[in-house]
Amino acid sequence: MTPPEACQNMKDLRLQIDTLDAEIVSLLARRARFIDRAAELKPGEGLPARIGARIDEVIRNVRHHAGKEGLDPDLAETMWRELIEWSIHREEAAMADGKKQA
To answer: What is the model's pTM?
Structure first.
């Protein structure tokens, strides 16, 4: 990756942003696979898809990491809350399908 200050024009800058976007999508896809595994493990441990204390912990972690990296913690929290809700719905759907198959 070229650092932002080394980009000489908008074409160079956009290429770096597009590369980062692809990496972010890849990381989100990896995260989704962990969510799928959580949906397999939670029923065996008697856990629901939505665990309020875990949501709070994730948000605290994200806000902390965002602050350390110079990203607005409010922006990070907003994005992660959306990601968390999507993840919970994905888990709930998978867990419901698992009950139907059992």
So the answer is: 0.89
